[in-house]
Each structure stands twice: as C-alpha cells, then as structure tokens.
What we know:
The protein is an alpha/beta fold. About 25% of the residues lie in helices and about 20% in strands. It contains 11 helices and 17 strands. α1 crosses α11 (about 365-380), α6 packs parallel to α11 (about 365-380) and α7 packs parallel to α9. The longest helix has 15 residues, at about 200-215. About 45% of the residues are buried.
Amino acid sequence: MSSALSFSSICFEQGCWFKEGRKIGVADKRAKRPSSMSFRVSAKSSVSSEKDIRIGLLGASGYTGAEIVRLLANHPHFGVTLMTADRKAGQSMESVFPHLRAQKLPRLVSVKDADFSTVDAVFCCLPHGTTQEIIKGLPTALKIVDLSADFRLRDISEYEEWYGQPHKAVELQKEVVYGLTELLREDIKKARLVANPGCYPTSVQLPLVPLIKANLIKHKNIIIDAKSGVSGAGRGAKEANLYSEIAEGISSYGVTRHRHVPEIEQGLSDVAQSKVTVSFTPHLMPMIRGMQSTIYVEMANGVRTEDLYQQLRTSYEDEEFVKVLDEGVIPRTHNVRGSNYCYMNVFPDRIPGRAIIISVIDNLVKGASGQALQNLNIMLGLPETTGLLNQPVFP
C-alpha cells in the first residue's frame, strides 16, 4: 500500500477516510456530486479510492497555479473541481499550459462565475492586492491557503506602507495564520485561513529562526544576499523579463524596498521578542526556477560555527523537507529543482565571529505551491508529505 494511504484515518468537518478506502461519516452533499466531479486513484494503486476532497484553484493561469495542478496530479485525496482565471475564462487548462494536457481538469471560469458549493478547500493564487476582498466573500466553511502577500503582514499599517494600498479585510486578518510549515505547524493545524509565506522569506527564515531562538546569533548586522529565477516575477509580460534583458546577466532589484523585507523582519522579530532589522538585497538570475539566500550573521559571544551547524541539524533532524547538508557541502539550486525541499548549510567566515549560511529552495515549490499544499494537508489532517515526495529534477 502506498505511504500516502497508509495512515489510519483522516477526519475533518466534511467526513472521514480510512486506509481500507471506505468512507465513513461523509456529508450528504458529497453523494449529490455530478459524475464529472468524481476523481479516482490510478488503477495501478493497491487502493481504489475517490479523490473526495474537492479543491478550488483561484488564479490558475499563473505559474503558482499551474504548479499546484502539477503537484495535485500525484495527490491521492485532492481533486480539482473548480479553476478560475478571469482573462482566460472559457479556455481549457491545456490551452494555457500544454504540459498539463494529460490531466482531466474543469474549464477555466471567471471568479464572479465560480460556484464555491462544489469545493471543500481553496488555493488562492491571485495577484497581490486583489485577494482580500475575494477571500472575504468566500463561504466561511472553506479551508483556504492564500499564496499572495495580502494576509502575510499582521500590522495593517505596515501592509499599507509596503504595498501602497489600504487593507480591505481588516477583520479577517485577525484570524490568519502565517504558514511557515516547519516552524508553525501546530497553529496551522487549527487554521481556517493560512497566509502562505513568500519565497525569499521561506529561504531566509528556515535557517535563521532556530538560531535566533537559541540565542546563537546577534540580532543586528544580518545581511541577506538573495538570488531568484525569473519565474519568481510571475507570468505577466514585462519588458524587464524579456530573454534579451535577462540572459547573460544579473540584475539587482527592490534595493532597500523589496516587499518581502517586512515579512522577514516580522518572523525574526517574533522569535527574538524584539525588533530585528535586516539588510536584504534580491537579484534576478538568468534561470527559470530556483532561489539561493546567502546570509551573513554575527555570532553571539563564545559561539562557534559548529554550534550553529549542530543547532540546525537538531532543529530539522525529523523534518522531511528541510535538509542540513554534511559539513562543507555547498547547497546548489540544481539539487532542489522541482521539489519541496530546502537544503542549507553553515560555513565559517574569514571575519572572526561571523558565519555564512546558504539556503536553497525551488521558488515555485517550497517557495510557493509546494508549501501551500503542505499547509493544506496539515489543515485537513493529512500527512503533510502527501503528494509532495517527488524527488528533485536533475540535470
């Protein structure tokens, strides 16, 4: 029996699923589903079971939406029954993303025409600034993971400062849980609405939070030199993202004003229990996907690089998706491509008392859609690795 189906039971508000493939206590509305919404595990599986958790995908025509669809192809319980894309409404998903042709998916519709009675949970992949009002209007019974930045910052005034517009769902913000999975798992379990972290904040907070929590590094003089593949800028047509503008070069952007800065500082300040300010500079690299954050830190008095390394090993020794590499091994974006893994390591700086941390992820998977799926798994009582154990693609 596949590991994804080997758990004893999965229970949440809509019903329960057991490893024998029997459904128990499923709500009556599920029996009324049209046959077009019936999904089944491949016949090759030792268990024949419907994909009984119905997923809505808002903003399916972007890279993160397409990545969720790709990941869900291997998920034994989540089946997509609703997909929206306002500018592509009426089209098939395969016409927008031909690589997804093999999947049987509903046609794209506009958000205003979406029937949310056909779904149990929603991934929201809409652009920043458009999500708050839409999520505010969704049925309160839905579990939601929002991949935009609209709910990541708890401080409403800080959101308005960095995103240049007023927050349109202030009351809803109060119930949001920030979804950095490995560090906030218990809160995510109880959440209805999760704000999925940004890609840069994921790659930065995973190594830094355990070190700050253990008082191994100082809260000042943290320098983050981060680099991302072009897919991080989204699918929209932009002159700066043309091949001739990107190829054979590196470009810095958002210097001192990148919108992920307050998100990073919020997470680090929470664990430090005092304000942490970082120096963060992102760079666009001539590659499609991948992200590396090289972080320079000042160690606390008497602390050695080996102490940082051992703390990270201890913090993540039981985690599937965060791997601290053997001493001296340099993380490479190639080695996490297409996967939900974060690889990291620590190195001594030539400057006494300082250390260098390197963290790599796939910006579209662990930095977005993969972590979103990991979070929804947890919210619905599933093993969080379900549908996410695909190994990195290399070369």
